[in-house]
């Protein structure tokens, strides 16, 4: 199939999935696009927003439209790692012989909603690390492969702190994007009211499947990045580190630790998806700039002065982009 045809098909499939999700989810255009960017870049998403903004409905709708298996895990302080990964059970067969058998946990699905992930203890949160990075789950010396495509969409409340545990930096780094869900506009609230309080329920169609998603992911990897664009991405990442000589003054003054190598990969992969959506087979500066905030905002750690001044990591990233 000609490359131009593949790019056009990618764009059409992406837009069809996005439009189908919009049948049930009102507004949140940026959030829906961000989730799909991560999905087709083979990454995971951290959704931050107050309760009641439709995060669960959005993720469930995504799984329906893509025809993928879905599990929701409600994280609580008393949850154990085995409640996520699964455990070994002693079972008896028809002949009375007893043996251990693996009982898979809820992590064995293609779309995982990790609801209120920061309510679980760090030990339980860490049960997701292997699954998110390696796409495997190891129990009793046996490694179990997760079905592809596999995507974790985790939620956390930015306001409530009681009974929560801050996500470790190593786990935050596993998320390709951190998306911040804003409260809907007045117009969107009216549409939500009409849709959710009437007797009719909005149905969505299955637009894609696992094989299509995998082929789209392969096409993303083939998108070209010119040398000068590569240099721009590298300089962007290095400029978030306070010990880099050419870093902006704001970075040197308020940042403790800059973005990681995974941040470099996140920007590049999602910028490739943006290029395909624009019908191009090469990444432009505008693609990189459009994904910089969600790809880096959770990977920059502010120092004491930055926290005290009320600086946001988004401010650091925007300042870096302005000074590049």
What this model shows, in words?
The structure is a single chain. The protein is of the alpha/beta class. The chain has two domains: 3-81 and 108-213, Rossmann fold (3-Layer(aba) Sandwich); 224-323, Helicase, Ruva Protein, domain 3, CATH 1.10.8.80. The chain is 46% helix and 16% strand. The chain contains 15 helices and eleven strands. The protein has helices at residues 3-22, 29-40, 55-66, 82-85, 122-125, 127-134, 169-172, 186-196, 210-221, 227-238, 249-254, 261-277, 285-296, 304-308, 313-323, and strands at residues 45-48, 70-74, 86-92, 98-104, 111-115, 136-139, 142-145, 151-156, 177-180, 255-257, 301-302. It has a five-stranded parallel β-sheet with strand order 2-5-8-1-9. Helix 12 crosses helix 13 (285-296). The longest helix is centred in the N-terminal third of the chain and has 20 residues, at 3-22.
